[in-house]
Structures are given as C-alpha cells and as structure tokens.
Fold:
Amino acid sequence: MKTRNYTPEMKERAVRMLIEAKDDYPSPGQPSKL
Structure:
C-alpha cells in the first residue's frame, strides 16, 4: 500500500464518493473499500 499526502478535503471527498457509489449501486456481495 503506497502512502501519499492527502488533504482532509481529499479524504472527505473520496469517502463521500464511496458512500454515494454504494447507495447508487447496492451490492451485498461486493465489499466496500475504505
């Protein structure tokens, strides 16, 4: 796993995108990556 310098804003945006994607495409068999 590569470590990069992410700003809190980038992290929040990434998490929000994952949450929205999970809401749009509910797949119980697909693990959510956080």
Remarks:
- The mean pLDDT is 76.
- The longest helix spans residues 8-24.
